[in-house]
Amino acid sequence: MGVLFSGSQAEFAVIAEDWLRSVRDIAARGVFVGGPPVASFEQRFAAYLGSRAAVGVGNGTDALFLALKALDVGPGDEVITAANTFIATVEAIHHTGARPVLVDCDPDHFLIDEEQTMAAASPRTKAVIPVHLYGQMVDLQRLLPWAESRGIAVVEDSAQAAGAFHRGRAAGSQGALGCFSFYPDKNLGALGDGGAIAVNTEALLPVLRKLRNHGGEVRYEHELPGFNSRLDPIQASALALKMNYLDEWSKHRRAVARMYEAELARVGDLMLPAHRGDESHAFHLYVVRTDASARDSLRRQLQKKGILTAVQYPVPVHLTPAFSHLGYEAGSFPNAERLAAEIVSLPMHIAMDEAAVAQVAGEMLAFLGPVRV
Ligand SMILES: Cc1ncc(COP(=O)(O)O)c(C=O)c1O
Asked: Residue 372: what pLDDT?
């Protein structure tokens, strides 16, 4: 038996019946954009996060872009984020006309380096986007007051971190705005694209509601040049159903991480992900490191045995052709570059159990050999 990389089909099986019923209800009402399912999901999601409000949008990339637009980020501004994020974070900055300023990550937690973030700030810095990468929250305790004292907005890229809490605060609830992706494989995943912006600064709510809907909350009342980026009710109803399971599924992911830790402790040439051991990691991904020279052959061997893995992400943003114009080069961010060559994401989802973890670990042991003492 193989081991799937994604749990989205297993999640679908859990909500299928109720969701199909809500799709029929939506069709019977004939409101396929907006309507009560979206508003009620937004309220519920905001309450879960402890945010003032949530604004559903078309996807996580738009959530970031519209968040920056609402903060009036544009040409002449700079926005700091991590070099080892998914490219969407940097695309969102780029499309506002602002300049993305990248910094390295720390080598253990893979999270944005706090000192480098502070050092990269200039009078032009309008926002910082800490990325809660792989589901693990960046500690914002120092960064938030530092940013506030300089008038820099913090936008949390929480695309991978729904269900994570640090010191009692949800991912996405501490910065001015928190951006979520509901891409199907995410911890809170729709059955297609979707996203949301958690609004923690109430003054930004009206502009966000306008930006996502052609510049107005009321049809044909266009108060500013907006966009079309809305969460649709068919997705919102799937998300509302999955919210019933989010905490349980996050708990399961943390349990799978502990199983991996136990099973992989005997495997050589392998570094397991560092974390705080609490709810601040929602384990969207379980990312291990091995020697760069062995990484791709390990993945091929696992695939031969039916175990699917991934690399998130094989090229750090500054080395992609898309962002070569930023002027960084190989060596600019050594931690991010090294990680890109060494990381492997192992299967991590709600359908993983002890047998599946043992199977993955067994194949890794067979390929990499035991820990040398
Ligand atoms: C860290 C991060 N930021 C942003 C995004 C963009 O989200 P989406 O794919 O919904 O546009 C993703 C997800 O793909 C992500 O992982």
From this structure: 87
Q: Which pLDDT tens digit goes with each residue over 23-56?
A: 999 999 999 999 999 999 999 999 999 999 999 9
User: What is the number of the ligand 1 atom nearest to the C-alpha of 194?
Assistant: 10
Structural domain spans, the chain: 8-103+110-243, 246-368
pLDDT for the residue numbered 373: 77
Q: Ligand 1 within 6 A of 60 CB? A: yes
Ligand 1 pocket member 229 (CB < 6 A):
no
CA of 373 relative to ligand 1 center, distance in Å: 41
Cβ of 157 closer than 6 Å to ligand 1, yes or no, is yes
Shortest-distance atom of ligand 1 to CA 132: 1
**Is it the case that residue 1 has pLDDT exceeding 90?**
no
Distance from C-alpha of 321 to C-alpha of 323, rounded to nearest angstrom: 5
CATH 3.40.605.10 fits 8-103+110-243, yes or no: no
Q: What mean pLDDT is predicted for residues 344-362?
A: 98
Q: Considering only the top CATH level, what class is 246-368?
A: alpha beta
H-only helix segments in the chain: 8-29, 36-49, 60-70, 87-96, 114-120, 143-150, 205-211, 233-243, 246-264, 292-304, 334-342, 354-368
